[in-house]
Amino acid sequence: MTKQQKKTLNLVLTYLVIILIGCVLLFPIAWMISAAFKTNDEIFGSIALLPKSFSFQNFIDGWKSAGIYTYATYFINSFIMVIPTTLLTIASSALVAYGFARFNFPFKKQLFAILFSTLMLPNSVIIIPRYVLFNKFGWVDSYMPFWVPALLACYPFFIYQLIQFMRGIPRDLDESACIDGCGSFRIFWQILLPLMKPALFSAGLFQFLWTYNDYFNSLIFINSVKKYTISLALRLSVDAESVVVWGRVMAMACVAVLPLVLLFFAAQKYFVEGIATSGLKG
Question: Among 59, 130, 135, 201, which is least packed, fewest CB within 10 Å?
Fold first, then answer.
């Protein structure tokens, strides 16, 4: 066997392994989509992946929900909560990262160590103090517990990610802009921010995904059904009926996943660049 044939064989085997792993990972999604068209008897009584017939009745009935609100309300609530949280997270994290990456100030190393150490703090440790604090502020049963921490840069993972990206951008650009008369904020706004676009998209995509899928914090801080998000609505559809029609639940799960899939494919280019690069390419 020649060297070229070995190379081709290795390439074919590599692709086969990737396709096999991809099929295994995609199977739960394929099963969810298939179950959206099935009845309970088909879901629990057959191992066939494809349904006997394709009917959108589960989507129609599921959208109406079991309560007085439809899934349109839950989608609107989700976007009202998620979009401001994502935008505020990007803005505040970028400003804090700019300060750590480009300026020297007293106790900088100590503050950065404290910031980094909060990454190791599990959510279960701080959930009770946060609830007590937000309850005293009167923010329970509102979206303020999500908006305000985003505004105050309380997500150290994104700050650290943007700091690392910004450190890869040459300081010569800052110095050149400073010679031309730019101030600190103008340098950040006109020079650094456009170069940080891949990292900002990556951070925004992560935050959108995590907040959109967040069930635990939404359950703790939101009490009114009219303010429920998609994650809570899916659970409500399970609890509200004595006999759960799983086809409707799977149908609404498919609809709930759709915005995330569309967002990922729309921002895939920037997401990959934000993960794979760290500043300017030479």
Answer: 135
Name the nearest CA neighbour of 198 among 101, 90, 98, 122: 90
Distance CA 156, CA 175 (A): 28
CATH at residue 104: 1.10.3720.10
**Number of structural domains in the chain:** 1
**Is 46 among the domain residues?**
no
- pLDDT tens for 211-235 read 999 999 999 999 999 999 999 998 8
Q: State pLDDT tens for residues 102-122.
A: 888 899 999 999 988 888 888
Asked if residue 243 is part of any domain, the answer here is: yes
Residue type, 147: W
